[in-house]
Amino acid sequence: MAPIVPPFPAARLRRQRSSAGLRALTRETALTADDLIWPLFLRDGAGVSEPVPSMPGVNRLSLDRAVEAAARAAELGIPAICLFPYTDPAKKTAACEEAWNPENLTNRAIRAIKAEVPGIAVMTDVALDPYNLHGHDGIVAGGEIVNDETVAALVRMALAQAEAGADILGPSDMMDGRIGAIRSALEAAGHRNVAILSYAAKYASAFYGPFRDAVGATGALKGDKKTYQMDPANSDEALRCVARDLAEGADMVMVKPGMPYLDICRRVKDAFGAPTFAYQVSGEYAMIRGAAERGWIDGETAIWESLIAFKRAGCDGVLTYFAPEVARRLKAG
Ligand code: PBG
Question: What is the rounded CA–CA span in Å between residue 31 and residue 78?
Answer without folding.
Answer: 12
